[in-house]
Amino acid sequence: MAWNSIIGQHRVKTILQRAITEHKIPHGYCFWGMEGVGKDALALEFAKVVNCNSPGETETGIEACDICKSCKQADKIEHPNIKFVFSLPAGKSGDSRDDSPIFRMSDDQIKLIQEQLQLKSENPYHNITIPNASQIRISSIRDVKKSVTMSAQQEGRRVVIISEADEMTTEAANAFLKTLEEPHDDITLILTTARHDSLPQTIVSRCQQIYCEALTDDDITTALTERMNIYTEEARLISSFAQGSYARACEFLDEDMRRMRHEAVDLLRVALKKNSYRMDILSHLEKLTGEKDRMKVEMMLMLMLMWMRDCHAFAVAQDSAPIINIDQRETIKRFANAFVGADYGAAITAVEEAIMHIRRNVQIQLTMLTLLITCRKIFLGI
Ligand SMILES: [Zn+2]
After folding, report:
1. What CATH code would you report for 255-380?
2. What is the CA(81)–ligand 1 centre distance, in A?
3. Separation of 47 CA from ligand 1 center, angstroms?
4. Regarding the domain delimited by 3-213, which CATH topology (the fold level of the hierarchy) does it fall under?
5. Which among 102, 245, 286, 296 could disulfide-bond with 36, CB atoms 3.0 to 4.6 Å apart, if both were Cys?
């Protein structure tokens, strides 16, 4: 890890490096902004740099050496000065006052936590997911308090990162507030959150606020091609879905986007057949609704929407049209030419409405059927 391994966020990187080089590090930071834009990545890199044994001055600030013992420990999130706190499942018989947060956990739970931490160290954009873990409990914060009152085990600056700090319970937040109110010179507490409004104002007001903005589509596309080794066309398609979040883009990698897009276009093609379309539509829908996965249906509709927009763009500007599905230019051209004069505006609205309905839990089959019949009216006039 190095600053340049963090996607975008140039303004934030400058602020943090300046704070380090000018020795003006606050006691509390709050990194906020939507999920998957690199808040944890920034916090972990900051913690690594302030603990590096021989950091180098660079044109833009300061960089960790990446080879000293401290850097190696920081890379693995195993540094004694760096505490990374996140939501944990409750132990077997609840949460006793004196227990450490992992005291009552099963071996399986502990193994899972270790695996998740390793994934996080390999990819700081990884979203830690542990079943039944949606709260940062008092025991975790008590652990933080204990460690900040002990003297440092290693030279450097101690950094406590509370990831997704809005998941602190009220009790935990109150305990954390006390820690914030008693600052120590060599300790920095960093909160990261995508739900800034959910944090108590008393905590927020004691931290320096650092807004981490959404990433650009270009930044995400470049990151996907360089890190995930996928083709530019696919990366562009995925980044247009990711809405500025690299973590979300990575989730889409797991889905087979090309296959899904093919299914979306195929469904549209079947719906627009002149004859005997009913049976085909129904069998397609049966397959789709059989999966009962709203996220998947929504994604397919998003792909259909993007396809429709491309066809519209092509209908307007022909070969010079800026389209997203650039690997499908020929098919889009054929579609646009088959339905000259179609009201794409109405078709796009219909797909958008279907997406809204899926999100509002309207029955999948009904939503899809309504959409396809509307599309027949729009494109075929029947
Ligand atoms: Zn180092």
Report:
1. 1.20.272
2. 14
3. 11
4. Rossmann fold (3.40.50)
5. 245
Q: How far is the CA of 48 from the centre of ligand 1 (A)?
A: 8
Q: Where are the beta strands (DSSP E) in 150-286?
A: 158-162, 187-193, 208-211
Q: DSSP secondary structure string, 222-255?
A: HHHHHHS---HHHHHHHHHHHTT-HHHHHHHHHS
Gap from CA of 124 to ligand 1 centroid (Å): 18
Q: What is the pTM of this model?
A: 0.77
**Single-letter residue type at 267:** L
* Residues around the ion ligand 1 (C-beta < 5 A): 52, 64-65, 68, 71
CA–centroid distance, residue 237 to ligand 1 (Å): 38
Q: Where in the chain are the domains?
A: 3-213, 255-380
Asked if residues 81 and 148 have their Cβ atoms less than 8 Å apart, the reply is no
Distance of alpha carbon 179 from alpha carbon 202, whole angstroms: 12
Radius of gyration of the chain (CA): 25
Mean pLDDT of successive 10-residue stretches along the chain, which has 382 residues: 91 96 95 96 97 91 95 95 92 59 82 93 91 90 87 84 96 94 90 95 96 96 91 84 88 78 89 83 79 78 91 91 85 92 95 92 89 93 83
What pLDDT is recorded for position 291? 63
Centre of ligand 1 to C-alpha 52, Å, is 4
Q: Cα(172) to centroid of ligand 1, in Å?
A: 33
Give the Cα separation of 371 and 382 in Å (integer). Answer: 14
